[in-house]
Amino acid sequence: MKILIIEDEKALSNSIEEYLLEERHICEAVYTYRDAIEKINLYEYDCLIVDINLPDGSGFDLIKLIKQKSITSGIIIVSARNSLENRIEGLEKGADNYLTKPFSLAELNALLKSVNRRISFSGRNEIIVNEIRLLPDEYKVFIHDQELKFTKKEYELLMFFVSNKNKVITKTGLVEHLWGDYMDSADSYDFIYTHIKNLRRKLINNGCADYIQTVYGVGYKFEVEEEE
Amino acid sequence: MKLLTKNSLSLLSLTLFAFLFGIIAFYYLLRVEVDKSINSELEKRKTNIISQLTYDQSVKSITPFQNEKIRLSAIKNVENYPSRYYDTLIYNQSEKKFEPFRQRGFVVDVSNHKYYIQIFKSLEETDNLIVRIFLIMTLLVIPFIFIIILINRVSSGQIWKDFHDTIRKISNYDINTHEPFILRKSDITEFDDLNRVLTKMIDRIQLNYSNMKEYAENASHEIQTPLSIINAKMELLLQSGDLKEKQLKSVLDAYEASNRLSRVNKTLLLLAKIENRQFPESKLINPKDIFDYQFEFLEDLILSKKLEISTNYEDNVQIKVNPYLAEVLFSNLIKNAIRHNIEGGKIFIELTGKQLMISNSGSALMTDPENLFKRFYKSSTSKESLGLGLSIVQKICEVYDFRLNYDYQNDLHRIRVDFV
């Protein structure tokens, strides 16, 4: 996937780039509104990561411009502003998603993948990891072509793991993904533990390899041998 | 004591005192005048008697007038009988009482006999007159005093009206309402000065306050960006495979701390926004929908704690609030009821158009319930919570003038929100 990162904070931009490069995306980064316009005019991107507060312009204007040119790129807004109005404005202007800073890179990555799926496989879309086949539009999971029932949270968990293969995912990151800001207590870690235990058991019992590894003290990792 | 009452009382006591004093002075002056006129009458009578005696040369010819007594005594020694006036009482046999008289005594020489003649003039009539004048005076003055006090009260009320208006506006003043503070213009210089000084002071306070809030909000915003850099870098560090377990743990701790910091920051920002009334638009909301959604969303939590939830919703409850704030308000209450619950505990929700009651089982608070809604207050049982949930609830209730109550009964924590 070809991604343009429009973010004026270089350190943050670099981190995003580094994380996404490991996912074998092609990334370019610009730090100003003007450069962004230049890049958009010259090249085509699958997805744009746009900060709202740029030193020489507003990310909203950028999105408006992109939509006017009927460019089909996916757009994810990242902003320090957490107000509902900003969120609504961004989505109305045509952004696909809105992330409030600070966000976790795993979350951004998962979002990118879902945006990409929506754009590139409009209609039919599935994710295949060895024996696991996910149909995100229908919330269905098949293992060895056998449909498996998952609870909503278990499904979301699996989806998040699959989106962030071979990455260490912290417990905090998982909690935030599943419950957003709603959970801020330690007992939520017990839930994560229970959910993961259930998910793992379900996968293994249905003839799936044990992909979910515990990274001691930190979190979990969905380990898949990369087939090149 | 009210100024008006104090004023009236002092006016009343002063006029009463002045009146008492005046009436005594008046009495003496009247007395002096009356005595003078009686003296001159007695003097005329004396001249009259002397001239009669000179003509008749016999004391027998003297006959008293009405209201008058004359006493004759033959005397040898003139020195003991001075010519003078004085008041005296004479016993009246027929009426059996003493009556006041004024006496004029003088010595006459009739056919070489010396007589001491005393003319007594009755004072009864004049005394009666004085008493009557006195009474009429009093009867006139008392209503007069009350009229003065009444006029004083009415005019004072008028004068102080502007002042009371100012007091009322100041006591109703709320720095968070964002309404301009305007005091009525007064035609009394002192009150006008007071109003001017107050308006200036409040303008200054308001400016400082809004600067401070703006600063807090901007600071919170500015903190978000460096925090996101920290978080991103930590996440990258966690991904790099060459960290030892110990280092990994350190990175993780730092990562969690910065996550926590950003959560605190976000929540404080939300609080600041609520205080700044940055959620103006409102819609009709049924809290039931929010509860249903929350129960589904937090299903795992409820199941794992084996909580028993019973709800009692009145049909078609609608309250007019900002949709976002409503969600924050009700979800915070639910989360609170779940978090501070015990294993196998209960949650009761009772919702009517007038109030919402959320009860949950749990052990009694260790501290004063007053602290419950304070920022960063935490009960000892959950160290990980930020302690901001209920202060957000309180702030939202403040915005909409909802009343918030807490009590603890039968092992149940009960939070009640009155919508009216």
Helicity level of chain A, as a percent range? 40-55%
* CATH fold-level label of the largest domain in chain B: Beta-Lactamase
Please state the CA-atom Rg of chain A, rounded to the nearest Å: 18 Å
Largest interface: A-B, 44 and 44 residues
Residues in β-strands, percent of chain B:
15-25%
pLDDT average of chain B, as an integer?
84
Structural class of the secondary elements of chain B?
alpha+beta
Calculate the terminal CA-CA distance of chain A, rounded to whole Å: 17 Å
CATH-defined architecture of the largest domain in chain A: 3-Layer(aba) Sandwich
**CATH structural class of the largest domain in chain A:** Alpha Beta
Beta strand count of chain A:
14
Total DSSP helices of chain A: 8
Number of helices of chain B: 8
Order of helices and strands of chain A: EHEHEEEHEHEHEEEEHEHHEE
CATH topology name of the largest domain in chain A: Rossmann fold
The tally of structural domains of chain A comes to: 2
Low-confidence stretches of chain B: none
Question: What can you tell me about this protein's structure?
Answer:
- The complex is a heterodimer of chains A (228) and B (420).
- With 228 residues, chain A is of the alpha/beta class.
- Chain A has two domains: 2-120, Rossmann fold; 127-222, Orthogonal Bundle (Arc Repressor Mutant, subunit A).
- Helices cover 43% and strands 24% of the residues of chain A.
- Chain A contains eight helices and 14 strands.
- Chain A has a five-stranded parallel sheet, sandwiched between helices. In chain A, strands 8-9-10-11 form a four-stranded antiparallel sheet, with helices on one face.
- In chain A, strand 6 (74-79), helix 4 and strand 7 form a beta-alpha-beta unit.
- Chain A is elongated and about 55 Å long.
- With 420 residues, chain B is an alpha+beta fold.
- Chain B folds into three domains: 3-143, 2-Layer Sandwich (Beta-Lactamase); 189-275, Methane Monooxygenase Hydroxylase, Chain G, domain 1; 283-418, Histidine kinase-like ATPase, C-terminal domain (Heat Shock Protein 90), CATH 3.30.565.
- In chain B, the strands form three sheets. In chain B, strands 6-8-9-11-10 form a five-stranded mixed sheet.
- In chain B, helix 5 (287-297) crosses helix 7.
- Chain B is rod-shaped, with a radius of gyration of 49 Å.
- Chains A and B meet through helix 1, helix 7 and helix 8 of A and helix 3, helix 4, helix 6 and helix 7 of B.
